[in-house]
Amino acid sequence: MKALRIHEAHDLRLQDVPEPKFAPDEVLVRLGAGGICGSDLHYFAHGGVGDFKLREPMTLGHEVAGEVVALGGEVTRVKVGDHVAVNPSRPCLHCDQCLSGHSNLCPNMRFFGSAARFPHVQGAFAELFVARQDQCEIVPPEMDYRVAACAEPLAVTLHAAAQAGPLLGMRVLIVGAGPIGVLLAASARLAGATEITVTDLQDAPLRVAVQMGATRTVNIRSEVLDEPFDVAFEASGSPAGLTSALGALRPGGRLVQVGMLPSGLTAAPLNPLISREITITGSFRFHREFGWAAELLASGRIDVTPILSASFPLSQAQAAFELAADRERAVKVSLVPDTLLMDGAGA
């Protein structure tokens, strides 16, 4: 079977690999569609993301959905033929973090397509991949696989919204209009925020942010933020974005850091945390929010159609990654098995 593997920066290869074996509590999934994430782009462009560096070839991909094609003997949660959104997080389920409801912080986490561990955890941009049964959320058979694959980034933003505390009636700032930023707009709207301002350096993603729930957009190249916010989400992963978010909060405001900052030390004006009693917290991946995300997408309560920019077959992955990196032209680019794309792109 074919799998999309990164060997080093800019060295992306569609290669033949052995079909994976699965344990009694696991299922074999045929890929329906997978979204190219910012971390996939970082591995492609830089050979790593944050502190996680490539040390061996690795199959990319963690925003995925597909069809269950085989079951281990102990599987009861799904059946062959089910369409599933697949949670890329595979916590141990036994450590203190898992048992206390914080499985996203599991020190033994195995996350699809991640170089955080060595040997690396292989991802799911492959014709077939294996998942534990508890990673699978059944979705309606008529649901576009590309939409179902968005359960993962949507779950990231639902968790970030939960980290912020109550958002009902709040004025919210979102710094960065990438896929996570625009999905944060949808999550903040769902949580009851009355004003949702999204900032970016480019106009194209800001137009998508409006479609996803932003009540105002600001291109900070030419406009200035002129009002204090109750809550800010930093989704750009840049020190400049962090500085902007801190400066825009009212006294007593809250900042949630969602974007992964560059490796090493990050300079930021932290005195306002003291003089204005700003609260800052991190938000890392998700846990129970993945199931919520799949349900919200299946019910249509959150429509991610505006972020779906293009689909490419696995055999054209290089072109797909190049488009996904162009923020003026794309928000979310999907990879689809060649045969499935020819049959109608992921339904």
UniProtKB/TrEMBL annotation:
Q: Which ranges carry the Enoyl reductase (ER) domain?
A: 9-335
Which keywords does this chain's UniProt record carry? Metal-binding, Oxidoreductase, Zinc
Q: What lineage, starting at the top, does this entry show?
A: Bacteria, Thermotogati, Deinococcota, Deinococci, Deinococcales
InterPro entries with a match to the protein in the record: ADH-like_C (IPR013149), ADH-like_N (IPR013154), ADH_Zn_CS (IPR002328), ER (IPR020843), GroES-like_sf (IPR011032), NAD(P)-bd_dom_sf (IPR036291)
TM spans (from-to): none
List the cofactors: Zn(2+)
Tell me the protein's name: L-idonate 5-dehydrogenase
Per the UniProt entry, what species is this protein from, by scientific name? Deinococcus marmoris
Among PANTHER family, the record links this protein to: SORBITOL DEHYDROGENASE
